[in-house]
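[recover] target loaded
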């Protein structure tokens, strides 16, 4: 399903650090978060060794967006961006926007190559955004995105709709246009536990009966902050929890145990090519024919996942 020739898109979770606590984030929800969070990041040497342009002949997107990271916390973030800047690909960064200074964001706008996109997660048109993004500061985010956009940065405003903020969607969309964002995107969150924050009610999505691997279809892979190469972000919470507990919860962890995951998918020991051709990836793919990994069933069979509604500005 995946080969080095077909990979077009790589998600990279750069760190386990973040400065805020969004109510529905794995950082807040996981019982193992104290063992996982604010501990490590992929170092620049691993990136330079394991991510070389000639290894990925059809690469199109490098996406700095993981399950637990605020990518701007990486101490070598500019060096990493510079490493990929010469690849002639789209570089995407997902951020809460509340770290660093306007000068830092100006510099980022200058070093990002053409075709980049920084997605700002701002779930409200004012301090309301701080309800879900606990610990964020709307005014600071605003100073930062203004500096980034003024310096030529291509920004996208991503707004997660909840009951408490949906009255601000149209206001935020207008603000996005006025402030110079290139796009405004709304998301309906499917995450169940957001500490009492209620979701906007949405129509159920159509159910399909076979596993249709979202990441495989997108020719996309995921690398987490511990250097584990896995098919997708949806398996990452289990991957991270298993890494710190060694607890076997279902077939996914059983596959990790049976195949000595550190020597099969971890970038300290194998290349991305070895990982995607290794036993763990083939076991995951084989599981879809019969007795699929439960997470694959729930995400890609029943299609319970975040649905994106794209709204272009103009
Ligand atoms: C874990 S975050 C990592 C990137 C960065 N820290 C951020 O928040 O943008 C990955 C993505 O999940 C999104 N996200 C956070 N809470 C969500 C929710 N309840 N439903 C859907 N997406 C959510 C973020 O906005 C971001 O696009
Ligand atoms: S900013 Fe991103 S990583 Fe940080 S808590 Fe929120 S969703 Fe999670
Ligand atoms: S959950 Fe399973 S089937 Fe879905 S994208 Fe991930 S690996 Fe593919």
């Amino acid at each position: 399903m995946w080969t080095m020739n077909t990979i077009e898109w790589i998600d990279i979770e750069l760190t386990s650090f973040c400065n805020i606590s969004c109510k529905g984030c794995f950082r807040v929800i996981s019982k193992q978060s104290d063992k996982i969070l604010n501990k490590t990041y992929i170092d620049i040497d691993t990136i330079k060794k394991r991510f070389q342009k000639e290894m990925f002949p059809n690469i199109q997107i490098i996406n700095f967006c993981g399950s637990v990271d605020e990518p701007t916390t990486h101490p070598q973030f500019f060096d990493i961006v510079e490493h990929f800047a010469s690849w002639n690909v789209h570089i995407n960064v997902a951020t809460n926007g509340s770290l660093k200074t306007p000068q830092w964001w100006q510099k980022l706008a200058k070093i990002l190559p053409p075709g980049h996109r920084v997605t700002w997660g701002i779930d409200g048109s004012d301090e309301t955004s701080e309800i879900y993004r606990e610990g964020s500061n709307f005014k600071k985010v605003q100073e930062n995105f203004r500096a980034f956009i003024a310096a030529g940065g291509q920004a996208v405003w991503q707004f997660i709709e909840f009951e408490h903020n949906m009255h601000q969607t149209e206001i935020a969309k207008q603000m996005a246009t006025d402030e110079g964002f290139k796009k405004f995107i709304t998301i309906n969150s499917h995450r169940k536990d957001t500490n009492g924050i209620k979701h906007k009610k949405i129509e159920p999505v159509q159910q399909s009966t076979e596993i249709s691997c979202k990441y495989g279809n997108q020719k996309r892979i995921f690398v987490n902050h511990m250097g584990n190469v896995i098919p997708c972000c949806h398996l990452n919470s289990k991957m991270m929890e298993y890494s710190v507990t060694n607890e076997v919860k279902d077939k996914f962890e059983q596959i990790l145990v049976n195949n000595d995951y550190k020597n099969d998918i971890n970038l300290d020991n194998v290349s991305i090519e070895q990982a995607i051709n290794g036993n763990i990836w083939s076991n995951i793919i084989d599981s879809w024919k019969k007795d699929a990994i439960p997470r694959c069933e729930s995400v890609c069979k029943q299609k319970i996942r975040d649905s994106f509604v794209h709204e272009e500005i103009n």
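[recover] notes: Confidence is low (pLDDT under 50) at residues 308-314.
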